[in-house]
């Protein structure tokens, strides 16, 4: 699938290419690709002081269409030198498809403070799964060749001991044509891949779309490969699921994330 990027600029708008295509609906974009666009636009919102992203929450109200003009409306809900809250709304033809809230906090090196407490854990959950060179690409799995799998490397990584698996993610494609990859674009995009972590749903005759995603970010990732490890729990009587996971890079955990699923017949 050839396209210069996930999204093509069209004036003040964007158009999703085939490289955003998700696995549930061939006419709708994968949630992670949509979040990448929101993260790209977030980096255009200025701050009063140097800040980093601390929390990102998105409500995926409707499947985002491929090939139609998408308009992002950013607004600052709370402005300050220590805390900023930004809302990002994705619209198409005046209809709201995604609403996201980003909490930014001031960036300040406090490593010179005496008796600064250490983290309560130095666990490295990514060490429990095999590395990318030992993992299996989802493009060769039950998902088949959907568009977004041509834009990223997404690998299923078995646990080194015992059952279960994690996921490795690496972006290979620009988010917006003509623009370099922006830090927050990659960061918030991978939050969506917490959905259904550690679940091998095969070719089940159902869909398990996630209606939201929330990530709490400790710091930006430093390496190209990002590991996602965690669990998903279902409640069949209500048609619900919840996934929780950690996101790791070469220095260990940099974020935790969660998402909820709506389970239904196809």
Task: Assign an overall shape.
Answer: globular
Give the percentage of residues in beta strands: 35-45%
Number of domains: 1
Which structural class do the helices and strands define?
A: mainly beta
What name does the CATH topology carry?
Porin
CATH C-level label: Mainly Beta
Q: Please give the oligomerization state of what you see.
A: single chain
Please tell me the overall pLDDT.
94
By CATH, the architecture is named Beta Barrel
What is the end-to-end distance?
26 Å
Describe the structure.
By secondary structure, this protein is mainly β. It has a single domain (7-107, 124-265), classed as Porin. Helix content is 8%, strand content 42%. It has helices spanning 31-42, 183-191, and strands spanning 7-10, 13-16, 51-60, 69-78, 83-92, 95-106, 136-137, 152-158, 165-171, 206-210, 212-217, 226-235, 240-249, 252-265. Strands 1, 2, 3, 4, 5, 6, 7, 8, 9, 10, 11, 12, 13 and 14 form a 14-stranded antiparallel beta sheet that branches. Strand 4 and strand 5 (83-92) form a beta hairpin. The protein starts with 6 loop residues before the first strand and ends with a strand.
